[in-house]
Write a structure and sequence with these properties.
The complex is a heterodimer.
Chain A lengths: L1 H32 L6 H11 L4 H25 L6 H39 L2 H7 L4 H39 L4 H10 L3 H27 L4 H31 L1
Helix pairs in contact in A: 1-6, 2-6, 3-4, 3-6, 4-6, 4-7, 4-8, 4-9, 6-7, 6-8, 8-9
Chain B lengths: L1 E10 L2 E11 L4 E6 L5 H8 L7 E6 L2 E2 L5 H7 L3 E4 L11 H12 L4 H14 L16 H13 L5 E5 L7 H18 L2 E5 L3 H7 L2 E6 L2 E6 L1 H5 L4 H8 L5 H15 L1
Parallel strand pairs in B: 3-8, 3-9, 6-7, 7-8
Antiparallel strand pairs in B: 1-2, 1-4, 4-5, 9-10
Helix pairs in contact in B: 3-4, 3-5, 4-5
Classes of the chains: A mainly alpha, B alpha/beta.
The complex binds adenosine-5'-triphosphate and magnesium ion.
C-alpha cells in the first residue's frame, strides 16, 4: 500500500516538476524572441519544415476524417430523417474540433518528435555546449524559430484541413449517398458563426506552441546517448499529445 | 586573467574536482595534462561557464562568472573561443557554415569578408576551401577536429580553450596546429588553455604546464621546471610508464572504493 502511494507521490512530483520546467522554458523563449540577433532565415526554414512539409499528412488525415464523418452521420441521421443536417454537423465538427486536434496530433508525431530527436542529438554530441561557447543561447537559436513556426503555421494547416474535411464530407454525401447537393451546401454554411472558425484557429495556434515547445524541451534535457534520444522522442510525442487533448477540453469550454 | 579558486565539482558520488586552483595570466599559454578521466575537460567547461562548480569561484578578468545571469554570461562568452574534444560541429550545417557561424552572428562582416576569413581559417589548419562544402559527417576524425579548431579561432577571441586539439592528427599536422597556437600567442597576445596528452606538443606551446591528478593541480611550472619535477607521479606521467606511484595510488583507491 505504501509502495503504491510512494509511486503515486513520485509520479505527481514528476508531473509538477515537468510542468514547472515547461513554463519556465516558455518564459525564456518569450524573452529571447525579442532579443537581437534575429535569424529570419532560420525562422523561414522551420516554417517550411513544419508547414509546407506537413501538407500531405494533413491532406490525407482531414480528407478521410471528413469523409468518414459524413458517412457515419448520414447513416445515423437517416433513421430520424435528418439527413439534411449532415452538412452542418460535418462543418461544425471539422472547424471547431476535429481539424485542430487531428492536425495538432499529426504534426506532433511528424515534427514534434523530430525536433526532440534533433535537439536531443545536439545535446548528447555537445553541440548545445558548442552553441553556448559561441555566445549563442540555445533557447534563442533553437527554440524561438521552432516555436514561432508552430504558432504561425498550424492555423494555416488547420484552414487547409477544414477545407479538405468539409470537401470530403460533401463528396461522400452528394456522390455516394445521393444527398441533395444544393441543400447540403446550404446547410453547411447556414448555421456557421464566425466564432466557429476563430475558435478553431486559436486552438491551432495554441497546439502549435505546445507541440513545438514540448519537442524542444524534451530534446534539450536529453540525457545519455542514443537511448536517451529515443526516450526523449517518445516522451515528446506522448506528453505533447496528452497536453493537446487536455488543453483542448479547457479551450473548448472557454471559447464556446 | 583566468583564476580558478578552490573548485569542487562532483557528478553523483564521483568527486571530479577537489579543491582545484589554477591561475592563468593575460597572454599566457597554459597546458593542462593528466590521466584520462581526471577532469581536464570538466575544468575547461568551468572556465567558459558550461558547468557550475559546487563550490569555489571562477574569476575571468575580475568577473566572477558564476554570478552572471544567463544573458550576461552569453554576452561574456564572446571573448572566448573553444575547440571541443569531439569537435562538436553542427551537423545540420556545412563545414563552411560552421566556421562562418560566429562571424555571421557576432560581426557585421559582408559575405565576401566572411568568405575570406573562413578560407584563411581553413588554410591555417591545412584544409582547402573545397572541404567547406562537405558535411561534418563526411569528414574524418582528424579533419573534424581541425574544423572545430578553425571555428574556435575564426573570431580571434582573446581567450582560447583547446580540448585535445592534436589528438588523432598525424605528426606533421599536429605540429602545424601547435605552431599555430604559438603564433596566435605571439601575434594576438591570446590567453590560451590547452589540454593535451602529447608531451611534445605540451612542451612546445606551453609557457606553463600544470598536471591534474585526483581533482587537484599537483605540479605546475615552465616546461623546463616541470620536466625536472621531483614529483614521482609527474615523472611517471611524462615518461609514460605503466608502473609507478600514479597507477599504484589509483589501484589502492579503486580497492578502497570496492570494499566500501
Ligand atoms: N556531464 C557529466 N555527467 C556525469 N559525469 C561526468 C560528466 N562529465 C564528466 N563526467 C565525469 O567526470 C570525470 C572527468 O571527465 P573529463 O571529461 O573531464 O575527463 P578528461 O580528463 O577530459 O579525460 P580525457 O583525457 O579522457 O578526455 C569522468 O569520470 C566522467 O565520467
Ligand atoms: Mg577530456
Amino acid at each position: 500500500m505504501t509502495a503504491v502511494l510512494e509511486l503515486l507521490g513520485y509520479y505527481f512530483l514528476n508531473v509538477f516538476e515537468q510542468t514547472g520546467l515547461w513554463f519556465r522554458m516558455l518564459w525564456r523563449t518569450i524573452r529571447w524572441t525579442f532579443r537581437r540577433p534575429f535569424e529570419p532565415r532560420e525562422w523561414l526554414r522551420q516554417m517550411v519544415r513544419l508547414g509546407w512539409d506537413s501538407i500531405p499528412v494533413v491532406f490525407l488525415t482531414s480528407m478521410f476524417t471528413g469523409m468518414v464523418l459524413a458517412l457515419q452521420t448520414f447513416n445515423g441521421f437517416q433513421r430520424v430523417h435528418a439527413e439534411n443536417f449532415v452538412g452542418s454537423v460535418v462543418a461544425l465538427a471539422m472547424l471547431r474540433e476535429l481539424s485542430p486536434v487531428l492536425v495538432g496530433l499529426m504534426v506532433t508525431g511528424r515534427v514534434g518528435s523530430s525536433m526532440a530527436a534533433e535537439i536531443g542529438t545536439m545535446r548528447v554530441t555537445e553541440q548545445i555546449d558548442a552553441l553556448k561557447a559561441l555566445a549563442t543561447d540555445p533557447v534563442q537559436y533553437l527554440f524561438v524559430p521552432r516555436v514561432i513556426a508552430g504558432i504561425v503555421m498550424l492555423p494555416f494547416l488547420v484552414v487547409l484541413g477544414d477545407a479538405l474535411g468539409i470537401g470530403g464530407g460533401y463528396l461522400v454525401a452528394v456522390k455516394l449517398m445521393n444527398a441533395n447537393s444544393v441543400l447540403y451546401e446550404q446547410n453547411t454554411y447556414q448555421f456557421l458563426e464566425l466564432n466557429d472558425i476563430w475558435s478553431g484557429l486559436i486552438k491551432a495556434a495554441v497546439f502549435g506552441l505546445i507541440l513545438t515547445l514540448t519537442g524542444c524541451v524534451r530534446g534539450y534535457y536529453t540525457r545519455g546517448g542514443a537511448e536517451g534520444v529515443g526516450r526523449a522522442t517518445t516522451n515528446a510525442v506522448v506528453s505533447a499529445s496528452l497536453i493537446i487533448l487536455f488543453t483542448d477540453f479547457f479551450l473548448t469550454k472557454l471559447l464556446f | 586573467m583566468i583564476s580558478l579558486q578552490h573548485l569542487y565539482k562532483a557528478f553523483g558520488p564521483k568527486q571530479v574536482l577537489n579543491d582545484m586552483s589554477l591561475d592563468v595570466e593575460r597572454g599566457e599559454s597554459v597546458v593542462i595534462v593528466g590521466g584520462s578521466g581526471t577532469g581536464k575537460s570538466v575544468t575547461l567547461k568551468h572556465i567558459i561557464g558550461l558547468l557550475r562548480p559546487d563550490k569555489g569561484k571562477v574569476i575571468i578578468d575580475g568577473t566572477d562568472i558564476c554570478t552572471l545571469n544567463p544573458v550576461e554570461l552569453n554576452a561574456f562568452r564572446r571573448r572566448f573561443g573553444m575547440a571541443f574534444q569531439e569537435g562538436a560541429l553542427f551537423d545540420s550545417m556545412s563545414v563552411f557554415e560552421n566556421i562562418a557561424f560566429p562571424l555571421r552572428r557576432h560581426t557585421k562582416m559582408t559575405e565576401e569578408q566572411i568568405r575570406a576569413r573562413v578560407e584563411e581559417c581553413l588554410a591555417q589548419v591545412h584544409l582547402e576551401l573545397s572541404a567547406g562544402d562537405k558535411r561534418p559527417s563526411e569528414l574524418s576524425g582528424g579533419m573534424r577536429r581541425r574544423v572545430g579548431f578553425a571555428r574556435a579561432i575564426s573570431l580571434k577571441p582573446e581567450i582560447l580553450l583547446f580540448d585535445e586539439p592534436t589528438t588523432g592528427l598525424d605528426p606533421v599536422i599536429s605540429d602545424v596546429v601547435a605552431e599555430l597556437i604559438c603564433e596566435m600567442d605571439r601575434t594576438l597576445n591570446t590567453t590560451t588553455v590547452t589540454i593535451t596528452h602529447d608531451m611534445k606538443v605540451a612542451f612546445k606551446i606551453a609557457d606553463r604546464v600544470a598536471m591534474l591528478f585526483q581533482g587537484q593541480i599537483i605540479e605546475q611550472g615552465t616546461p623546463e621546471v616541470f620536466q625536472q619535477s621531483s614529483n614521482e607521479i609527474v615523472q611517471q606521467f611524462i615518461e609514460g610508464r605503466a608502473e609507478g606511484p600514479l597507477t599504484e595510488i589509483e589501484t589502492v583507491d579503486r580497492r578502497k572504493r570496492l570494499r566500501e
